[in-house]
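Most newcomers find our protein records easier to grasp once they have seen one. To make this concrete, we reproduce a full record directly below:

===
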Amino acid sequence: MQTKNKPAHHTETGFENRHPLPDPVKRSFWRFLKRRYFGNDDWPKAKHQHGKIPVETPDHNAIQNPDPTQLQVTWVGHATVLVQYGGLNILTDPVFSKRASPFKRLGPKRYTPPGLSMDELPRLDLVLLSHNHYDHFDLASLSELGNAPRYVLPLKNGALLEKAGIKPDRYDELDWDDQLSHPGVTITHVPSNHWSSRTTSDRKEMLWGGYILEFSDGYRFYFVGDTGWNEKLFTELGAQYGGIDFGLIPIGAYAPRDFMRNAHTNPDEAVKIMQAMDVKQALAIHWGTFVLTAEPVDEPPKHLSKALEDAGIPEHNFIAPAIGATRAFERKQAKAEIT
């Protein structure tokens, strides 16, 4: 039973999604493995995917000398993005390891190398962690980043971060709708429709979500994290937080649809998030790096292109570039600012 002051997503057994969706199939780690290795879906094999995703040499000069008046992003791979704006260097969900797994020889293996190596990163101010899944929360990478940056992560994840050697005074845990002030930016932790686990017995014990960053000049940035499409949730978030200058929106790891629908958006649903949150420009993440699901690895950007066409959104407003790509974006002025 909920106490009077206890948020609805805090339950006796852990956390729960806001506006939970019905599950089309019963899901568990063991059912996933059964479906993966003995089901009828034709899953890609990582060893056959090398070279299928375009790669690009990052603009190292721009990375080390960014224009503070423009948003600059470099896609490292999957959900790892170097975000630079207003003199701040921010890294999302750093995963540089060869596998997204607790094991050295088992689990999803990287088939596209990181677009930036760790020693090519600039000095980091902030690291944003969305949740504790292995393809987003990599202890080896976090340990190498060390205690120089400030870490922002959802509730109950601090103990896991400390396993990477990060000191308690170097991180802040946030609940949904909590805000954190950092010089030059205000960070708000917002819900996503997802779940958490590191083992077969800790499902939903640690919180998950995304982040909205508002910089001192009013520029607004949205890191969605991992999410399934939830119309009620994103309509609500759009009313509360909408009007975003730039977003990192996931487009991959969506098949088989009945199994993945509540965890990951497909490209059509990614465009719905863009519309619901009124995101002016976006970069596609969560594809092209690990074989996590059954769709062909190069399919997500093709479907994104069609989804954007159907929605009447120019492709340059929601890009799916090569891994390693460095791109700069000028702020789009609102109509009220132009007149």
